[in-house]
Amino acid sequence: MIAAPELPSEFHYPQDSDTRFSSDTDFSEGPDVSINPTKGKGGKKGKKAVGEKGKGGKGVGEAGRMNGHHQENGMENMMLFEVVKMGKSAMQSVVDDWIESYKADRDTALLDLINFFIQCSGCKGVVSGEMFRNMQNSEIIRRMTEEFDEDSGDYPLTMAGPLWKKFKGSFCEFIAVLVRQCQYSIIYDEYLMDTVISLLTGLSDSQVRAFRHTSTLAAMKLMTALVNVALNLSINMDNTQRQYETERNKMVAKRANDRLELLLQKRKELQENQDEIENMMNAIFKGVFVHRYRDAIAEIRAICIEEIGMWMKLYSDAFLNDSYLKYVGWTMHDKQGEVRLKCLTALQGLYYNRELNTRLELFTSRFKDRIVSMTLDKEYDVAVQAIKLLTLVLHSTDEVLSPEDCESVYHLVYSAHRPVAIAAGEFLFKKLFSTREPEEEGAPRRRGRQSPNANLIKTTVFFFLESELHEHAAYLVDSLWESGAELLKDWECMTSLLLDEPLPGEEALTDRQETALIEIMLCTVRQAAECHPPIGRGTGKRVMTAKEKKTQLDDRTRMTELFAVALPPLLAKYSIDAEKVTNLLQLPQFFDLEIYTTGRLEKHLEALLRQIREIVEKHTDTEVLEACSKTYHALCNEEFTIFNRVDIARSQMLDELVDKFNRLLEDFLQEGEEPDEDDAYQVLSTLKRITAFHNAHDLSQWDLFTSNFKLLNTGIENGDMPEQIVVHALQCTHYVILWHLAKVSEGSHRKEDLVSLRKQMRMFCLMCQRYLTNVNTTVKEQAFTILCDVLLIFSHQMVSGGREQLEPLVYSPDDSLQRELLSFILHHVFIDQDDDSGSTDGQQDDEAGKIEALHKRRNLLAAYCKLIIYNVVEMNTGADIFKQYMRLFNEMLSELGTGFDRSSSAFCGIKELARRFSLTFGLDQVKTRDAIAMLHKDGIEFAFKEPSPQGEGNPPVYLAFLDILSEFSSKLMRQDKRTVHMYLERFMTFQMALQREDCWLPLISYRNSLQAGGDDDTMSVVSGYSSRGSSVRSKKAKAATPTANVESSSSADVSWQQQTMQTPVMMPSPHLTSTMLRGPGDVRGEPKRARDDSYMGVYALPPDPQQQPHPHTLPQTPQLHQTRRGTGLMEEDEEPIVEDVMMSSEGRMDDLNEGMDFDTMDIDLPPSKNRRERSELKPDYFDPASIMDESVSNSDFNVELYVCILF
């Protein structure tokens, strides 16, 4: 490899021969254009000398330029920018007309093209003909920079509006079509491409972000178009070589020597053209790409990575090697998700083609760990694409990914973010379920237990159990639904595995596996019937397509026909197992009940009703009974003919239950007799069944209020009523009142009904109030919750919405009841966790029990706060609630003292809240200037208002508040930061400024946030050197004075650096990769740091190509610098951007690049070979000497700092 020379602003391409492929007859339909007559005669290539410009074109003049295109379209004298912007003409005709004008007067046409790029950047300046003839490119760019109006915000490539919406696409299309139309002649005239590439290379080095962005986009699209040209040339060379070999192998008598000579000449011309294209691509790659792929602007970096992915995909023989892949690998560590996303999508296009896998082996081994870690990226779009990329890697070969790599993806099927889960489900399906037993041709299809899906369903069950997330079967099913719906909807096989006996030699499912299979089967039925993801994953209901609706109807019909027959045997087999029965009983809720009639399945319905009744008689678990109640409710639908049959069965069962309850209750409440445990159990079990059914069914005809109220009253009088009986009696009575209210609210009601309901409601409220003083905590909590609900339902809110007839039912609690409710809250909610012994049932030492007790207390407080919100109780009672919070807050502060844990979840939550609050102030700092300044003033006063009780050498009690306050520092204007810093120093002592202990970190970080100039740039970029390595400016440009903006910015940086040197500060927090990992982090803040294994060898990070500092920048200090971040592409950078975006110190870069000569790589197109032979080319571009020591490991400081910042 030969190092490419640095490209001057007026560069030329060395040529070995004056011969050019000057005829388009073999490859194009358009006419040939005249070639520069001075070519190859010692004249300067590229832009011509002043006296040589405009030969043959002076007569046209600038006033009449582009007349061919613009007059034809009725748009005389319109500039190329206006034509492309309007988009009224086809791009092909626009380019053709420009080419015609170029043939007539190439200087005038080229000037219009130059102004096109300038105007696309949003610059209002215009390059005149005189400037074009007499000024160097660097001088022209400097003049345009001075005329650039940054405050206008007009940047065509990102502007909103219908006119600009498609402009970026038109811009890229214009460049592609221009190269395609010129590929046979004009691009080889040593004038057009030299000038354009020189201009774009110079603009890409501009301090104006819009210039850099536009020129980089244009250069990358130009490069892509040239890659297509190079590919076509390669194909033509192969064809020519094949024709030549065929002709040469003929017999001497039949051989045409003139044809052989013609083919040799054509091959020579093609080779010369290919060499020239290589020179052009080298100029763009070294002049633009190698600097802009690490630009400070994420969008510019993303453009570079996207296009290099296209080059490797389009022309893999030339570009798909480690010399280019390393740029993608390095950029996968970029801080911005947009750039990381482009890396992954570029790699997907490569891994999708299996023929390219052998060329990706080294890259995969180096960067596999990084790709796996990106599945946990904080940007969900990046994580999704990382998983999809691993799926393609898995599809190409199973040996690359280790079991640990696969397991890190497996658990993502339980992710709450659905796209991540779907991608992980596809990965899981390809890994575990892609191999199935082949079926013999002509053999009958195997069903049930013998189905090919049987083993796959078992594998699903095994995976579900091994994941130890048994409550998330719905998430697993949803993740696999798109990739394995056919497998998951094989309900016939599932029921066969549960009901049929195992085949000879087959191992039967265990009880745990059967439970998991039933749960998965229920989730698949629900997913097929409802067609929306489970709770927590859905983004709202979406409109289904006609095809989805048809699939939904077909699935419901099929599942009903299958489970209507299979469900009764399943219930009979597992009738004793509560967990299995609970899941099986939910299946009828998704049936198409009309099938029972149309399919003549009434006998199976009778069998189902019998099984449900037996289950009700056998079980007393609340979950099982509620499942039975919901099943009856789903089957008792008046729209279907089965309603009467189901209603009769339900009524018979409830009749028996109510009669049994009344009989047992009468015996249980007999005076003078002590009820035994068996009688209490019978009453409780019957009452639980009635309560479960009363939740979903109206049992008003059985008058349960009288019996339940009698039971509750006896419990108050005697005080020895079992706890669970009272709890369920309160709940059942509550249901009685609610059903009564529902009947009355329907409209047609009698006055007697209102009077009866009012009487029952008030009696029940009085009963609940009396139970608030019960000795049993569970009973008191139940009574309190129900009482709050009843008071809220029967408050003054119930007459709203035109229900004035319900006004007699309104009930307002008296003062005594309000005091009791408040007293209950104060004594049962605002207590210490260890004191809450009653509600945890003796499980204080159990963490789950404590969490459950906390949820109970929250629910109790929420029930009471609803009464305050809806004015059911006096509003001033809310003051007592806030008093408790203030008391607990003060106690917490007094306990914490100065030992405040800044890494705790509570503190991080407050800091995150402050960050979000700061975002509400918007971007207009002038409008919010006073408010932000006052916020900092009051915050500083609060932080220092109470000194430390330990003495003067310790930090103030509330010093940690400065850490919260630092979230608002970015909203301060530059001059206000200095003012606030001066105000802060009034509260500080000299000793405080010298402190470096951890307890003083809030003060240190807050001072750093005030000392940073402008908005802190979150990108780890050090702007200390020129961003150009292979292209330098002219001497006149280097000696020029920088613009006023750069001057003021540099002076501001000087004062900031001097102030930083005088004031003790904390080192800035190191920048981390934005992918959240469990392992050690990637700390960027130290000159010598640990290295990721993926950076070794040919993939070491590149050093800066040019080691000399920029003449307009300050000397580099040992300190870490923070660069100013602008708000958009229209802003001008204070300094040229040079360092890699993944680095924040020059030392780290040098450490990673020992032995790596970055400038030794040229674009070298492969030699002409037949397409069959081309796949055998395996170029080796890397130097073994660049393989680096991998013994450096992360320090303990790196790990601790990573964990601190992450959590």
Observed structural traits:
mainly alpha; 2 strands; disordered C terminus
General description of the model:
The protein is mainly alpha-helical. Helices cover 57% and strands 0% of the residues. It is built from 48 helices and two strands. It has a two-stranded parallel sheet. One of its GO terms (cellular component) is cohesin complex. Residues 1109-1121 have a biased composition (Low complexity). Keywords: Cell cycle, Cell division, Chromosome, Chromosome partition, Coiled coil, Nucleus.
H/I helix tally: 48
Write down the Rg.
40 Å
Secondary structure tally: strands: 2
Distance between the termini: 48 Å
Helix content: 55-70%
Query: What's the overall average pLDDT, rounded?
Result: 76
Task: Report low-confidence residues grouped into runs of 5 or more.
Answer: 1-76, 837-844, 1014-1160, 1168-1207
Largest beta-sheet characterization: 2 strands, parallel
Structural class: mainly alpha
Strand order of the largest sheet: 1-2
Which percent range describes the beta-strand content? under 5%
**Silhouette:** globular
Quaternary structure: single chain
